[in-house]
UniProtKB/TrEMBL annotation:
E.C. number: 6.1.1.4
Cross-referenced Pfam families: Anticodon_1, tRNA-synt_1, tRNA-synt_1g
Transmembrane segments: none
Record keyword Ligase present: yes
Residue stretches making up the Aminoacyl-tRNA synthetase class Ia domain: 325-490
Stated family: Belongs to the class-I aminoacyl-tRNA synthetase family.
Protein name per the record: leucine--tRNA ligase
Length: 791
């Protein structure tokens, strides 16, 4: 399908985006399900006349490439590029149309990842702090808490994780925790409900304030940030207050209960310091393992609390309203194959960000034979041990002396992917990370539910941050989320050991279940092999026509999966062949009597309208795609039921058959193209094509989405409001006839409801499909006018 965006992307361009893959070199069925859904939405929107973009790239930094480089003594860049080319070929074989963009390991991309880090650093939101970290002794890197499973093992290597204290780079995600928890700018909460609930469960409800105090190096021997969480910031205003830390805190090593482990300057009292004591029997905030204590009872003081918070924010010490359990975002990784953190450590100035004009700081050339044989029990990056001296030792950007060394940790890949949706909307630029003027939120973001608490949360944080700095006009990055469930396959187990289907054949003592597809379980399915055996269109239709995206997809035997697909293909081809034979006079029909004919034709046309609407609504509004394929089957049944009577000679029948072929083209583009070519080979421009807007001289991809003919066809308008918990609730539904919807514009909808215009918060319109009106108040009375139908 040779389609492109009609012109440069603008704020009116529809933005479809699927989560980009890691270039492992091999697609799996989970990828296929996500990208087929995105391609379907893109192609359907294009046929509807929208300017739409569907970009794709690769999340190409990360451990697998680095491990492959170590094992094979091969540059990870070479390994990555080879895999990218292989996966691009696989994606092309499935008939997807993408607007290709950079990968995260391209210097033209990570230049702006580094720019983003420096912006956070300059804003006081990137810092180094000592914390307990998860050390993977096999991959020799630090893992985030979310990358450690319930058994304390690494999610990737399977190694038992070791707990250590280490100085790391963090991002102060707590600065926006309250806003992210509230989600006030999220519009489409219908698809956001699960994700927002998961994120709220993860960060927990804000209940206090987080402060970042600097340790006195001459007293403690450590130059580090000490985080304090307290519900009562006013405690800073009394000299009787001390800081209590738990046994799990990095300062507690070898200390006893109530023993003073150090002192720290109280920034809210002149020339006062606070003791830091180990307290063994207190309920500490999990995020900091440190809080404020006072020797005597003290009542809350809102005035002093406000004074403390104002001062904390003015001098960069935090004072963020957040939860007691949520930790800042740890982004340091001791890896080579990652975005270099653009910081120089100067003996005079401390950590200094690299100047924008000197970005990107590219990865140096190193000898991979050294890395292959290197292993260390120390938490350190390969860059520190193997980078050339002329890369490591540099001039300080601030004081211009040469007594400085580069930061050798690299960014976690979640940092790389936290902003790619901003970059991908427009063509890549060397002069800016994204185009603020033309940029808009993603209309539909498609991916896996498993990313709800990490990638999606960090993407929201970055967008909130950039909005606060004036780089964006919006705070929430994704309008609609279409989170797909996993694909499962039938597995066979005997005494805890997985068997292949062949090994389990005819055995009655085997446990049979459906589990997530896995090569190690013998249940992995290669989409390439399916395409070779059954065709790309058969794979696309099969993956979409069974189960809606948010439901788990239970993959059965190939016979059961593809059998119904080829029955559908056969029935449609048979219908076209019989139609052409009848039109050419080669086959006979049995005419209906005039009364029966009129009734049947009226019902036929009404049913065609309904099926055209159902298919579009299921793809672009409800995202319940299986409902769309069901309507396509029903339209085939309608055509088959009337292929042998005189309805087949009407323009209404021709319209229904042409509409069917156009509507399946986003699902099965190659098959639809063949069907259209056969259909139009004996069908010339006529009354039907002029009336319904078909152009038989053009291919199926140049047609317009079929029109609904009945001016009294009713469209549902949903009125919603946001309840006290921030959840979208439906207040009322009414139906409006097509004749009142000429432009499908917000202005047109507001003109229909002029009496409540002041009560409307926003209007969401999917042209020819759905209308949602969110009200500011639940009590608003919906006006009813002539032609409106109360549902």
């Amino acid at each position: 399908m040779n389609v492109v965006a009609k012109h440069q992307t603008t704020t009116n361009t529809k933005y479809v985006l699927s989560m980009f893959p890691y270039p492992s070199g091999q697609l799996h069925l989970g990828h296929t399900r996500i990208y087929t859904t995105a391609d379907l939405l893109f192609k359907t929107s294009y046929l509807c006349g929208e300017n739409v973009v569907n970009p794709m790239g690769f999340d190409s930094f990360g451990l697998p490439a680095e491990n492959a480089a170590r094992i094979n003594n091969k540059n990870p860049f070479v390994w990555t590029i080879s895999n990218i080319e292989q996966m691009k070929s696989q994606l092309k074989n499935l008939g997807y149309h993408f607007h290709w963009r950079e990968s995260t390991s391209d210097p033209s991309y990570y230049r702006w990842t580094q720019w983003l880090f420096t912006e956070l650093f300059k804003s006081g939101l990137a810092y180094q702090g000592i914390s307990q970290v998860n050390w993977d002794p096999i991959d020799c890197t630090v893992l985030a808490d979310e990358q450690v499973d319930s058994e304390g093992k690494s999610w990737r290597s399977g190694a038992l994780v070791e707990k250590r204290f280490h100085k790391q780079w963090f991002i102060k995600t707590n600065a926006f925790a309250n806003d992210l928890y509230a989600g006030e700018d999220i519009i489409d909460t219908g698809h956001w409900n699960f994700i927002l609930a998961h994120q709220r469960w993860w960060i927990q409800k804000p209940s206090g304030y987080l402060f970042y105090l600097t340790m006195d190096e001459d007293k403690s021997g450590l130059d580090n940030i000490l985080q304090i969480f307290t519900p009562y910031p006013e405690l800073f205003c009394t000299s009787k207050t001390f800081i209590g830390i738990s046994k799990q805190h990095w300062l507690s090593n070898g200390k006893k209960h109530r023993e003073i482990v150090g002192q720290i300057k109280n920034p809210f009292l002149t020339d006062k310091k606070m003791d830091i004591r180990l307290i063994e029997d207190a309920n500490f905030p999990p995020s900091t393992q440190a809080t404020l204590f006072i020797a005597r009872e003290m009542h809350p003081d809102e005035t002093k609390r406000t004074e403390v918070l104002d001062r904390a924010r003015s001098i960069g010490l935090g004072g963020y309203y957040t939860s007691r359990s949520y930790r800042d975002w740890l982004i340091s990784r001791q890896r080579f194959w990652g975005t270099p953190i653009p910081i120089v450590h100067c003996s005079n100035c401390g950590p200094v960000p690299v100047d924008d004009q000197d970005l990107p700081i590219q990865l140096p050339d190193i000898e991979y034979s050294k890395i292959s044989s290197y292993s260390s029990n120390d938490i350190s990056s390969p860059l520190k041990n193997f980078a050339p001296n002329d890369w490591l030792n540099v001039k300080c950007p601030k004081c211009k002396t040469y007594d400085a060394i580069r930061e050798t940790d690299t960014c976690d890949t979640f940092f790389d992917s936290s902003w790619y949706f901003l970059r991908y909307f427009t063509e890549p630029s060397d002069t800016q990370p994204f185009d603020k003027i033309r940029l808009r939120p993603v209309d539909c973001y498609i991916g896996g539910k498993e990313h709800s608490a990490l990638h999606l949360f960090y993407a929201r944080f970055i967008t909130h941050f950039l909005r606060s700095k004036g780089y964006l006009e919006f705070r929430e990055p994704f309008h609609t989320l279409l989170m797909q469930a996993i694909v499962k396959a039938r597995t066979y187990k005997l005494n805890g050991k997985y068997l292949t289907a062949e090994e389990a054949k005819d055995r009655k003592d085997v446990e049979v279940t459906f589990e997530k597809m896995s090569k190690s379980k013998g249940t992995g399915v290669d989409p390439d092999l399916l395409v070779q055996q059954y065709s790309s269109d058969a794979v696309r239709w099969t993956i979409l026509s069974v189960g809606n995206p948010e439901s788990e997809r239970l993959w059965d035997s190939e016979e059961k999966e593809f059998g119904p697909t080829f029955v559908f293909f056969h029935r449609l081809l048979l219908t076209i062949e019989e139609y052409l034979a009848i039109k050419s006079g080669q086959s006979k029909i049995k005419p209906l009597d005039s009364l029966k004919f009129d009734e049947t034709l009226k019902d036929f046309d009404r049913s065609t309208d309904q099926h055209v609407f159902n298919v579009l609504y299921s793809i672009c509004s409800s995202y319940q795609i299986r409902n769309g394929t069901s309507s396509i089957h029903k339209l085939v049944n309608l055509l088959r039921a009337n292929i042998r009577n005189n309805i087949v000679h009407t323009k209404e029948y021709e319209r229904a058959l042409a509409s069917l072929i156009i509507m399946i083209s986003p699902f099965v583009p190659c098959f639809a193209s063949e069907c259209w070519q056969a259909f139009t080979s004996q069908t010339k421009e006529n009354e039907c094509s002029k009336l319904y807007g078909f152009d038989y001289d053009k291919n199926v991809f140049e047609q317009k989405w079929p029109k609904i003919i009945d001016p009294n066809f009713l469209y549902i308008v949903r009125f919603t409001y946001r309840n006290e918990n921030g959840r979208e609730e439906e207040k009322k539904r009414i139906k409006i006839p097509l004749k009142l919807l000429q432009s499908w514009s917000e202005k047109e909808i507001r003109n229909l409801f002029t009496s409540i215009n002041e009560e409307i918060e926003w209007i969401e319109i999917v042209k020819n499909s759905s209308i949602v009106v969110r009200l500011k108040n639940q009590s608003t009375v919906i006006p009813m006018h002539e032609g409106f139908v109360d549902v």
